[in-house]
Structure formats: structure tokens, C-alpha cells
């Protein structure tokens, strides 16, 4: 959302190319909303959503924990002032030498989803804590998950038993219901699977203690979405239903939900044209596109709110595209986007809810365009 | 292709992450093959395919011209030693201030596809040469083009007349039959449209002189493709058919065709696992994926040849995925890829024909992973 602070910052400078501006105060409010809604759940911020040092420092100061995908992210979190016991190495795909480096840095909590990965962890980080990711189907998510991460619940039982046998601490399970998950029932199904893994292993003498409920907490894009309190209620209800009075320790990993709505991209209209004299749609070309930070428009999955100085006037359908010489660099085409008729070349365009998954997705120099510039204010 | 020089280079070093290695000798051979096959056509290398300084210097020395997408690419070409008269600013989507900068740097050849763009060029680069991009349907291309670039032939006539009226030099038309275009007839159709624009404008007193036939010259991926000489024959035949004895000056803009087969990516197997005990497919996770340089596997459009030390042995179907915590970072899933059964975690994997559209597509730091390292030898 466009806060007064972001508006003032944008008005105080001139920009030659696209920029994203993130308002720290919104990130703080998001953190506090999660902490209030789920007081017994530990928050692990998904660093990949936006690893800007100012954001990591803010969250470290607020007491957040951190979910990391690589050794580089672990080092960024440590540099922001968090101790290694607040870090989870949450990527299920790790080189053995990276596991060893993380362990040397003090990290001892690792995600796994295969016996092959457990063996790497047992060699490179003996005695460490592990949790196993379980496959859920991700239905209802706007940015659907494939089967890339996780394994079936039965396989998770095998994986955690194997970890236990190799001297690791089998701690629990994780799941991820899909990013931008709008169906509250998705958590219920995943928690049911989790309880099954807990119970089966308990019968074999292995006591799990932790459920990592992942992310999937939506930011506010174009559609109305349930608020954090609604999510909290649904999740708590499902926990009681499947675990009874023996509630496990719980973890969540919000990324988009923590920083998505805190950021706004300022872009510029480079060209508005038609393909033929009788074309019924305008083509609007911006100075940012799929390779400049808006990768999540892939398959038109995420529809960002767009604001212009002409808002409120008459609108007409547009195809919106990026500035590169790549024909795949089109943001919205199958479902055209209505923009003001009076929009002009050179106009500023504000793309809201772009604080997550924009800066780091940005290509290093595609077509010679610089990566997305980022400011945290 | 894996040349002896690339193999020796790879064997002489240790790599911690993925690298692409491009063999300059293959680029040289490709340039010479184009020059031999189309002696009367000027070659404009599409810099966006791979802007490595060593490649630009090699091609500048061989006499190539350059197709650029941005002011940054123009500066890179000038730094490589080519004079500005050998540069085309081929992006149809340009900020007016970027047109002015290019013109100050000596560039005076610009692509347009709309009257709105012509007006920018007329203001920022008075008297410059322009050519108008015409829409073709791109059927038969493995990496299909949308309607993002170009306009209808009738609109192109309007655009070029408008340029003429504003004091620009209306030089001709361009088209792009689609990258990896395997259907030789696609050029025929595009040249027929071009001849129609030439003839209509000639009747109105405007003499065009140039046809820019774009790129679309395939590199050798998995499928057998027609060789450069076959392309040359088909194109020359179509030119004669549609322009008779008044052959226009011609330009081609090979990018992938110049550097694609000159490069090999060296990657490492990070994990091989199954999702369930009875899974019939292995999941093979590499240390490079969609966000690390293999963006062109989007929709599994391009199927790169993959070599391992186990080639020749029994194979089995795999899903191949990248190393990031992003479920969209899967390379081949819908059409599984057969890899050797004996492939192991830690093995080297060579991905061939990756000299084009890899380094620059690479994300700046997604999940904390560094952009693809690049060597030109």
C-alpha cells in the first residue's frame, strides 16, 4: 500500500529507472499482527521474500526468527544481529558442504524431505535437529506449489526414523499450503497429515514436538483476503482438532505476509500504442517487467494493484508489458488490465504490494537493464 | 557443444557453484558460417543473447554490426571497439531520454513500431534512420513470440509515412519469425508482407531500401535442425520471389545462432530423491535452475542436451529441478527427462547449448544464490 511516507519519499527524488520502496513501519505492524494473533507460535521470517539488511535488522530487533534458503542468507541474518539459534536452514535441497558451513556458523535446525538429505545432514551436522517436509496439494493458492518439496506422510515417517537412527534429533514436520493461500481449510488437511506422522512415530518410540506450518499467508493484492486473525482462528481450531490437548510447538514462516504489502514499485510508462488502426486494446509498456522484478506475474498468477494520477477517470482494457526485447516479457495479456484512458507516455505508475519477491528475482542485467533499485525507509 | 577447450578448462579448475563456459572459437566459426552463407547480408549480433566483453570484442574484430536493446548495451559495444555506425538500437520500446543519449553517442538507426515511438525519435534524434517492425505470427518457433513487438503491415505503412513527414529517414521494415524457428517457410510469409509495405510506400513516393530479417536462427539443441546453408537458400529464394531484381539491402540479427552452441553450463547434482516409496520417477535437483540462468526452460520450451559421466548406461525418467525454495523452479516435469540410473549426488552435469540467454537472465540474488558465473575462453 502507498503510505504517506512512501509518497513523500517518491516525491522528494528523481528516478531514472524503476524502484521499489518498502516502508519499515508496515513491516513492523505486520510482525506485531502475527505475534498478537499467534502468541504461542514462533515466527520465522522467510528471508527470500526480501533480504534487505534494514528489514532483517528491524525483524531481528523485534525478536523474529529466520527461515533461510542458503548460506548467503544465513550470513545476512547473522550480520543483521540475530544469533544462529534463531535460524532455520529451511531449504530441503542443500549441498553437503553448505550444511557443514551452516553448522560451523552455529545453525543446527535443518529441513529435509528425503533419506538422501538426512544422510548429508548426519555427516555434515551430527546431532542436529531436523524436520521433514510433507507434501500437501496446494489447492486454492494463487501461486500454486508443484510437488517439488516434501514427500508423502508415509515417506516422512521413514525419513524421520532414519534421522533418529543416524543420531539426529527428529523434531517434527513442516508443510506449506501454497503461497497466497486463500482457502482456510488447507491448513486443516495439512495438520491432519502432521498428526498422523506424530502418532505413528510415537508408537515407534520417537516423540516429535514441532509443526512448522510454513508460509502462505497472503498479502493484500487485488482481492479481498481473510485477515491475520481469521487465519489464526482457523489454524488454532485445526490444531486442537487433530492434536487434542497435546499441542505441539508451532512455527510459521511468513515472507509475503510480512513484507508484501509494505512495498510499492514506482515505474514509468515508456510507450502506449496499438498494433493496428482498429485494435480494441492499448499496449502499455512500462520500464519494469518480468525480468526486472515482476517474475511473479508468470502465467498472470499475481495481479498487482496499479495506481496512476488519472485514477477515477474512464478506463479501457490494456495489455501491460515490460521494456525488454523479450516477447515473454508481458505482464497481463490473457486477462487484460483496465487502466485510465488518459494515461500518457512518461506517466508515473505505482505497483502496490510489491515488497516481496521482487528485488531478488530481478535479472542481473537482462537486455542491459539494471536490477531493480531498492529503498527501505 | 562440449569442445576439447571447454573440457580442458573445466578439468583445470574447481567450481563451488554453476558456471557457463563459452568457447570463442565456436563463436568465430558461427560468425564465419553466417558471413559465408549470406555474403550480401549485414550481420547485427543481438547483444542481449550474451554481452560478455570478450564476445563483443571478438565480433567487433570480425566486422560484425550490433543489435542493441538499451543504452547500456550500446556502451558495451562501443567499449568493445565498434563504431556507432555499426549499432542499431533495435528495441521498439525506448524512453525518449535514452534515444537522445544513443543519438549523442553516434547511433542513428532506430527500430519503431508505432507513431508514438516515431514522434519520440523525431524529437530526440532528428534526421535519424528508422525501420518499422511488422508482426508475423511466429508459428513453428520453439520460443514463440507474442504480439508484443511490431504492428500490422498497414499500420507499418502509416508509421513509416509519419516518420518521413517528421524528417526522419524511413529506411525499411523488420520482422522476427520467432526464436528457434524451424519452419523455413516462415521467412517467405514475412518477406511477402515486407514487399507489400515497400510497394505501397513506393507508390506514395517513399523509397524503402532495407529489410531487417531479425533472428530466429536456431542453435543446435536436442532436435536436428536445418543448417545455416539451408536457411540461406530458403531466404534468398523468398527474397527473389517477392522483390524480383530489385533486391533490398538485408540485415540479420542472430543471437542464439551466434553463441548458443558455443556455451556449456557445468552444474552439480545436489539431491536425487523420490516423493514416495512407490514413486516411478526420480527427482533430480541441480545447483542451477530457472532463476539461475535457465529461464528459457519456462513452459519447458527449450530442452537442453544434458551430459553426465554415466552416459551410455541405462536411463530412467526424472523430474529435473533447480536449487531454490521456489516451487516454480522446475526445469522439466511435464515431459520428464531420461537420465542415467547410476547418476549420483555430487556428480557433474553438463548442460549444452547454453551460451545464449543464460548469464543475463540470471536473478541477481534469488534465495541468496549468486548469479551464474561466466567464462569466455
From TrEMBL, chains A, B:
Catalytic activity, as annotated: L-ornithine + H(+) = putrescine + CO2
Active-site residue numbers: 325 (proton donor)
Gene3D superfamilies found in the cross-reference section: Alanine racemase, Lyase, Ornithine Decarboxylase, Chain A, domain 1
Keywords for the protein's UniProt record, in alphabetical order: Lyase, Pyridoxal phosphate
Record-listed N6-(pyridoxal phosphate)lysine modification sites: 48
A cellular-component GO term for this protein: cytoplasm
GO molecular function, one term: ornithine decarboxylase activity
Origin superkingdom: Bacteria
Pathway(s) per entry: Amine and polyamine biosynthesis; putrescine biosynthesis via L-ornithine pathway; putrescine from L-ornithine: step 1/1
Orn/DAP/Arg decarboxylase 2 N-terminal domain: residues covered: 27-259
Any GO BP: putrescine biosynthetic process from arginine, via ornithine
Pfam family of the protein (one): Orn_Arg_deC_N
Requisite cofactors: pyridoxal 5'-phosphate
Annotated family: Belongs to the Orn/Lys/Arg decarboxylase class-II family.
Protein name: ornithine decarboxylase
